[in-house]
Amino acid sequence: xxxxxxxxxxxxxxxxxxxxxxxxxxxxxxxxxxxxxxxxxxxxxxxxxxxxxxxxxxxxxxxxxxxxxxxxxxxxxxxxxxxxxxxxxxxxxxxxxxxxxxxxxxxxxxxxxxxxxxxxxxxxxxxxxxxxxxxxxxxxxxxxxxxxxxxxxxxxxxxxxxxxxxxxxxxxxxxxxxxxxxxxxxxxxxxxxxxxxxxxxxxxxxxxxxxxxxx
Length: 215
Prior knowledge:
Helix content is 31%, strand content 16%.
């Protein structure tokens, strides 16, 4: 199956996921976060405000698109190809239960499509459908994912990384203290949400992760 195969080096190794609580009329947390990014550190940014209606989500995406970001930073939105195209974003992230990339790529051939995976079966499905990268987790314990079961662990992460040539981002309870374990198992990079929410430590956290994941 033909699709846009991205060079691994074109994807940043730090994947920042928005709070999921953004209100484009009142709460500017995501734009404040991104405005603090050190110029030398690029990242992947997923806008995942599922609670917003289409108008609100587009307004947020357009606002984020206007932030002066470090070179190489890529902006993605959760599932919404229409919003990605309307706001000139770089890609779309697809949950495991979402429509597959091969069904969406014909209408958006220039977008990056990433997929969440939780098993080897879903990994192979994502590969076959033309995913550009994978998000795997939860690797470690994290309160937001406890209702879905026990964490998968670094050994399982390593198994998936050895099974695919696609970039795999480790997600779930990732901290500067355990990120190196994920990289040691073959992860391409790390993804996180809650650890980036403290504005007073945002720059320090980004710098710590950048030091760990840089090849």
